[in-house]
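Limitations
The structure tokens in this dataset are predictions for the assembled complex, not deposited experimental models. Users should treat interface geometry with appropriate caution, especially where small molecules or nucleic acid strands are included. An illustrative entry is reproduced here so readers can see what is and is not provided.
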Amino acid sequence: DAGVIQSPRHEVTEMGQEVTLRCKPISGHDYLFWYRQTMMRGLELLIYFNNNVPIDDSGMPEDRFSAKMPNASFSTLKIQPSEPRDSAVYFCASSLIGGPMGTQYFGPGTRLTVL
Amino acid sequence: TQLLEQSPQFLSIQEGENLTVYCNSSSVFSSLQWYRQEPGEGPVLLVTVVTGGEVKKLKRLTFQFGDARKDSSLHITAAQPGDTGLYLCAGGGDYKLSFGAGTTVTVRA
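Predicted assembly:
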């Protein structure tokens, strides 16, 4: 059974370019989470969806970041325009149930480098 | 600002030794989870503790949730090289998790 799938695994781009990260959650999972991990700030929640609806986007750093979930099997995180400080590993995770007892299954991450 | 403080930040030990990693907060959490992350991969859930004072064992790993549900510890007995990784604690509240910065554990053969 496939886990959470993320693409691309690595992305190198130049400052000012648009970046789109993609995620396919585990089938049947109603919750989807986007995280960012850096050495300085650790693992931070950016946004999460329940049944394709954005519930909490308070972690999105600024208007340059946007996330969508057009259907239950696909989500995107877009950065436009990208900046060097956006360089990080971005993880997508999904869970069957929400709340503190839910198990979040993480994808392998996308390592983004903005030059 | 990290709500959860993990210590130590780095830990390097010899195979067979024991180790303990700590996770502390000034906030009360309804649950606390421990994850292990290996290089190039996402975190993988090890355990969830929900009751103050709760102790859970997973083979050589022992997890404890503080009585006040503000702190937790992870103890590994007779560590093996396969235990090497980044250990993250995460506090649960509502539908979100707040992660600590992690402890990087290296077990030398």
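Some entries come with short summary sentences. For this one: Chain A has no helices and eleven strands.
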